């Protein structure tokens, strides 16, 4: 494997996690296969999805992304060569919360759609404060013992609940979270930095930040007075109205020019250089969008460049 692969528990992953939220939503199966083919041809091996993707789209009910990825795995016969991450507990009506029953039934549905007998990295997608950590950690541990899941992880969880779950795993000798997927990028730092990052560091967890490009804002394609045809344009454009957003774009422009790199690559490289971060997570709807994302594997920002971006985003 390439020297720049990162470790998540016992998993070895490419430094760019490919988001599957667009598969079966803004990318149909043919487009999705093309993106997946191009990503793996370039050395990528870390594909992220969830049972709820893309229930928000008209006519969808969730599971569309997993189904596309499962069809691709079956068509390519390459299951052993890729690391598949998926999630449970986003509140699908028939599987609400994080009860043991939800986790047990959720994993079976995901395995069926992914057309595989194991999931490499299985996340609790959203914390469910009504369920004790003992219940969901014990349920996840059972999946690991059964060989259905290799590593477990958490997303959308407070520092306190994360610490509580990790402490229970340690005390009981059960499976322990190996990773966290936080909302984290140059224009959203307080969603991770602070106590959540501290708990992650203390327990040597790997972070795989989502919204790594702030819904596309950090690609530089959103500028004052411009219009972009994207399903996520509204979420990205809100950053244009803030001083921080303008400062960050200016700093990204400066570093990107100096390094002859794409703005998106620089934004991802800043994330990749942060403590605990193993691999930023970004999605591509078309093959043309992939090179700027994959280039994070080869771009190492200097200390001065990192400082410039960090100060601009303060």
From TrEMBL:
Domain of life the protein comes from: Bacteria
One GO CC term, this protein: cytosol
A Pfam match: Aldo_ket_red
UniProtKB keywords: Oxidoreductase
GO molecular function, one term: oxidoreductase activity
Family matches, as CDD domains: AKR_AKR9C1
Annotated NADP-dependent oxidoreductase domain residues: 15-312
Protein name: Aryl-alcohol dehydrogenase-like predicted oxidoreductase
Lineage: Bacteria, Bacillati, Actinomycetota, Actinomycetes, Kitasatosporales
């Amino acid at each position: 494997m390439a020297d720049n692969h990162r470790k998540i528990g016992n998993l070895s992953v490419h430094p760019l996690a490919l988001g599957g939220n667009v598969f079966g939503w803004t990318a149909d199966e043919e487009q999705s296969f093309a993106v997946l083919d191009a990503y793996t041809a370039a050395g990528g091996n870390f594909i992220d999805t969830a049972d709820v993707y893309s229930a928000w789209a008209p006519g969808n009910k969730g599971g569309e992304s997993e189904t596309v990825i499962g069809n691709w795995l079956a068509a390519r016969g390459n299951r052993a060569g890729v690391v598949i991450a998926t999630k449970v507990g986003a509140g699908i009506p028939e599987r609400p919360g994080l009860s043991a029953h939800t986790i047990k039934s959720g994993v079976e549905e995901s395995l069926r759609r992914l057309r595989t007998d194991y999931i490499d990295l299985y996340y609790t997608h959203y914390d469910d404060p009504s369920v004790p950590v003992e219940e969901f950690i014990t349920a996840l541990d059972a999946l690991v013992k059964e060989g259905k899941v290799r590593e477990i992880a958490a997303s959308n969880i407070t520092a306190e609940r994360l610490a509580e779950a990790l402490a229970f795993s340690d005390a009981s000798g059960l499976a322990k979270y190996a990773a966290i997927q936080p909302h984290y990028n140059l224009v959203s730092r307080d969603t991770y930095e602070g106590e959540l990052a501290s708990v992650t560091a203390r327990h040597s967890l790997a972070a795989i930040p989502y919204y790594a490009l702030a819904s596309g804002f950090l690609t530089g394609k959103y500028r004052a007075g411009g219009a972009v045809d994207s399903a996520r344009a509204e979420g990205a454009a809100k950053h244009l109205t803030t001083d921080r957003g303008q400062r960050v774009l200016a700093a990204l422009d400066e570093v990107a020019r100096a390094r002859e790199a794409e703005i998106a690559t620089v934004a991802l490289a800043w994330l990749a250089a942060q403590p605990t971060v193993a691999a930023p997570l970004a999605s591509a709807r078309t093959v043309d969008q992939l090179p700027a994302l994959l280039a994070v594997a080869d771009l190492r920002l200097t200390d001065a460049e990192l400082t410039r971006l960090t100060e601009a985003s303060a």
